[in-house]
Amino acid sequence: VQLQASGGGLVQAGGSLRLSCAASGRIFSSHTVGWFRQALGKEREFVASIGWSGNSPLYADSVKGRFTISRDNANTVYLQMNNLESEDTGVYYCAARANWKMPYDGWGQGTQVTVSS
């Protein structure tokens, strides 16, 4: 089963976007969901994650205070991105894992975020 990220686009620096991540209920209801991004020519990096009950949000230092991860009861996880910077440009992916010992899985195609300066 793959997770599907959506909501990307082109935005000016300082602007906002909200990304969505959707998957089957069986996956989402008991898994931690993470957001990752990959800039052109760089390795994929962790952005944020949220526990199965909506608790324990974690953020990369580079996005703290600007991005907010949340999840609703309809099997969707969101990434609200404010005050975007050119360094936030990249393809954003979401994935899920059953617990901290397991690797993230369910990678989909991702969604492109482009921030113009």
H/E element string? EEEHEEEEEEE
Question: What does the main sheet amount to?
Answer: 6 strands, mixed
Strand order of the largest sheet: 2-10-9-4-5-6
The Cα radius of gyration reads 13 Å
**Mean pLDDT rating:** 92
Our count of helices gives 1
Helix-and-strand structural type: mainly beta
Strand proportion: over 45%
Uncertain segments of ≥5 residues (pLDDT<50)?
none
Structure description:
By secondary structure, the protein is mainly β. Helices cover 3% and strands 45% of the residues. The protein has one helix spanning 25-28; strands spanning 4-6, 9-12, 17-22, 32-38, 45-50, 58-59, 67-71, 76-81, 90-97, 111-116. It has a six-stranded mixed β-sheet with strand order 2-10-9-4-5-6, with no helix packed on it. The chain is globular. The chain starts with a strand and ends with a strand. The model has no long low-confidence stretch (mean pLDDT 92).
Condensed summary:
With 117 residues, the protein is mainly beta.
Secondary-structure map:
Layout: E1 4-6, E2 9-12, E3 17-22, H1 25-28, E4 32-38, E5 45-50, E6 58-59, E7 67-71, E8 76-81, E9 90-97, E10 111-116
Parallel strand pairs: 2-10
Antiparallel strand pairs: 1-3, 3-8, 4-5, 4-9, 5-6, 7-8, 9-10
Search tags:
four-stranded antiparallel β-sheet, 117 residues, globular, mainly beta, 1 helix
